[in-house]
Design goal:
With 141 residues, the protein is an alpha+beta fold. It contains 3 helices and 10 strands; from the N terminus they run H-E-E-E-E-E-E-H-E-E-E-H-E. The two termini are 25 Å apart.
């Protein structure tokens, strides 16, 4: 996420989002929320900011190709959700909620989400996480 950081201004974040390779500008007439960007890889990034315009969280949505999202050596979208959970649990305390749909590592302010568990989907859905959020301390509380 070259240049994108918690604590920066929303204006600087939007500039960084637009400068990332593969950025797809909005189509004519398309309205996007502030801090949202979409890319050719199908990666989407959404930046949450406070009332002063300071970035407090960055959420990435799973790309379909050409992009790897790696946190402390763990490829968050390519590796299976079970492998991601296991690897993160070796490094940090993880909290597993909703039977495994939501995973958080509070000490490093990272959370992962999937909409369904593999055993409930009857297919490949749920085998990988769909989004990851990295946040400032205290986000969501």
């Amino acid at each position: 996420m070259a240049g994108l950081q918690i604590g920066m201004s929303i204006e600087a974040a939007e500039q960084s989002l637009q400068e990332m390779p593969g950025f797809v500008p909005p189509a004519p007439g398309e309205v996007r929320n502030r801090g949202f960007a979409h890319y050719e890889s199908e990666l989407s990034i959404s930046v949450d900011f406070d009332s002063l315009g300071v970035v407090r969280a960055i959420e990435l949505f799973r790309p379909e190709k050409d992009v790897q999202v790696v946190f402390r050596g763990v490829n968050l979208f390519t590796e299976s959700a079970d492998a991601v959970i296991s690897q993160l649990a070796e490094m940090f305390h993880v909290e597993i909620e909703d039977g495994g749909l939501n995973i958080t590592a509070p000490s490093v302010f990272i959370g992962l989400w999937r909409s369904v568990l593999p055993e409930d989907s009857g297919g490949d859905d749920g085998r990988h996480f769909e989004s990851v959020i990295i946040a400032a301390p205290g986000y969501g509380s």
